Every structure is written in C-alpha cells, then in structure tokens.
Amino acid sequence: MLTSRERLLCAMRLGTPDRVPVAPFGLGALDPGSALAQELIERTDIFLEVWCGGEQYSGQVNDSQIWSSGDPCLGAAAEIRTHTEGSKRVTTYETPQGPLRSVIEHTGVTTAQTEFPCKSLADAEKILSIPYEPPQIDATNYHRWAERLGGQSLVLVTIGDAVNWVAELFAPQEFCLMWADVPELMIELTETAADRLCYFYGELCKAGAKYFRVYGGEYVSVQLGPEAFQRLVVEPDRRIFDLVRRYEGVVHFHNHGPMTRFYDQLLEIGIDSLDPLEAPPWGDCDIAEAKARIGHSICLVGNIDDMEVLGKYPTEKILGMGRELIEKAGPDGYILAGTSSGTYTEHAARNFLALVELSEQMAG
Hints:
This protein is α/β, with parallel strands linked by helices and 364 residues long. Helices cover 41% and strands 19% of the residues. A hairpin with a 2-residue loop joins strand 5 (79-85) and strand 6 (88-94). The longest helix has 24 residues, at 183-206.
C-alpha cells in the first residue's frame, strides 16, 4: 500500500497508483487540531502548500514600517513602507523614479485591493528601475512540513508564475489595456520576471525543494486569450519548468476558468499536473475530452467543485459523481480533487472521506 505522498507522485508522473488519489488542498475551514482534520490527513491524499521566501523587517520611521521584499520578482533591494489609514493598509514602493502606492481596504465583510501600484506606462518603468537583488531563499519550511507529515501529504512550494507578478502590479482594466496598447512592454516585464524566477526556482531545487504549485496563468487565459497566453505564459514559464525538470522536480499548474481552447498550449509548457479543470458553469471541462486530448501527457486534477458541490451536495450524489470521474479519467494520471479553494467546509471534508472509500472500492 502506498503512502499518500507516493500515491500522488505516482499519479502526477502518469502512473497507476494503488487507487485514484483523493486530494483536498489543505484543511480548508477546519480546525487544524480537530479529530476531523486529523482523519482527513490520515485517510485522504492532501496537498499542503508552503512559501519559501519572506519579507525582511528593517525598521520603522514615524508611523511607517519599512520592509525589504521577499518577492522573487521584485527583489530584496526594493524598499517597501507600510502604514494604516483607518480601514486601509497602504503600501509604498520606493523606486529611483519616484514612489508607487498600493492600498488594501478592509470592511466588516471582506478585504480587497482598491489601488494597485502601477497605473500607467510610466509606473511600469518605475518598477523596472528598481535595482534588483535576489531575495533570501530558505527551504526550511518546506523540509519541516515534509518531515512532520512523513508520507502523509505532498508538500508543494507555492509560487506565482512570471505573468502573475505583472498582473498583480495593475488593476484588471489596466492589465488588459497594457496588452492592447503596449504588448512589447508586457512581454518585457514578464520575461524579466521569468529571468528572476529561474534563479529562485533553481536555488530552491538546490536546497532540496522539488515539488511546486504554480499559479497566475488565469489572468491571461480568462482576460486576454490564446495569443497572449503563448507570449506571457507558455514561453516564459516553459524555460522555468525546464529548469525544474533538470532537478527531477514536479510542477503542478493551477489555472481557473474555461481551459479547453488552451489544451494544446498547456502541452507546450512542460507541466506535470493541472487543476482545477472546472466543469460548467465555472469552466468548460469535459473530463473525458480532457483525458483524450492531454491526459496522457499531463496528470488531470479536480473537476469537482469543493465549495458549491462537495460543500453542499449529499454524499450519495457526490459518490455518483466521483464514480463517473474515476471511470472517465482514471485509474492512471488522475487525482480526484476540488478547486483548491482552501476554504472548504466540514461537510465537504466528510465527502472527501467518502470519496476515499469509493476509490478504494473501485480499485478492488
């Protein structure tokens, strides 16, 4: 019998494990110390995400705290000041060409970014003017969790891809307009990020971190389309992931939204697994079609929503859906998972456990 880590890696490498893995992403809204959380860790095949960078606090001036960035794309030389204005957390990025301001606002209901650092072409040039120094890389957190969990769970270092950094500099409208008006600048920003990420991934691999969860492509697939996906996702990410493969690492790619028209491009990137492969109405994935088109080159992960389906439907219905997914996508190169929301409920957790029993039964 395989451990959950071995089971996940077997599937991600397109093998046929002892049963189809059933993989929540983290513990959702569960109390980590609860009996249900412990049962989930022991019985399912959980993915656990960690971060291996970090901001460095360097002091305070008046009411502002000063940080050096742990962002692998922004770099450690960037000086960042933060302070609060009522319900707002204001961040100022100091650059040789002048400051940039970002605002995150908190309400009694939610938190949202209401102002982004870059609002114009000139602001993009300010970002590029910041002297670059690679941030400190520390894989201790990765190794600590991998050792703590033993064979239970696969620990993934979570990092945004190259275009994710660019997209988070701009409000969505400006991000789209930049691609329409100055695509060459968007490509320059993304390629710059990819250069810096190659170093970051390489150093993590040298430090023994081998398994990565990468996100950010949905900014392009949902908002900009296939041509932009080729230039801003496929080409820059491919060289990063080629580097990871040289260290015998594994890349799990996270991309929300309709993905059917991007299948051929996904094959070009060099990823090992893909989630969440959302079914309608959230996406357009037919799991049988996905298996036929890309499922013999990429491990398929997901196709069942953890909030709107696993979190709400009765177990009997969930088991019927799970059986159909395993029949169509398994037993090789498939992981039955949710949408990696990280916020699933106790009801969803119990449905995950029921799916483990189903997977065991179907494996005989």
